[in-house]
Amino acid sequence: MAIETSSLKWIVACATDDIDEEDVIRFDHEGASYAVYRIDDGFFASDGWCTHERAHLADGFVVNREIECPLHQGRFDIPSGKPKSPPVCVQLKTHPVRVENGQVLLGVPAQDAS
């Protein structure tokens, strides 16, 4: 299900109950892969692939508002996507998230989502 606004299309990524606190899951949609997180501050989303090498962040660990890549243990700040420890040095793209009726919705550019 998708709801389109002027610049974003909101897509149901999962139910809020699908993600435990301090955890991450993978969400794939139309050829793109995302990581959806649940931390103390709420729900967040980013591109799914580490910016250092091709490892999916949903296979990593959530620790203190950071996602640790499963391949080389580099870390990103979950809310901002900023690199926090080597070997990652390129910021991770984050995506807007909202929660409605027990579902986590991911905002993707409307032109990229059909």
Automatic annotation (TrEMBL):
<dbReference type="InterPro" id="IPR017941">
    <property type="entry name" value="Rieske_2Fe-2S"/>
</dbReference>
<keyword id="KW-0411">Iron-sulfur</keyword>
<dbReference type="Pfam" id="PF00355">
    <property type="entry name" value="Rieske"/>
</dbReference>
<protein>
    <submittedName>
        <fullName>Naphthalene 1,2-dioxygenase system, ferredoxin component</fullName>
    </submittedName>
</protein>
<keyword id="KW-0408">Iron</keyword>
<keyword id="KW-0479">Metal-binding</keyword>
<keyword id="KW-0001">2Fe-2S</keyword>
<dbReference type="InterPro" id="IPR036922">
    <property type="entry name" value="Rieske_2Fe-2S_sf"/>
</dbReference>
<feature type="domain" description="Rieske">
    <location>
        <begin position="11"/>
        <end position="106"/>
    </location>
</feature>
<comment type="similarity">
    <text>Belongs to the bacterial ring-hydroxylating dioxygenase ferredoxin component family.</text>
</comment>
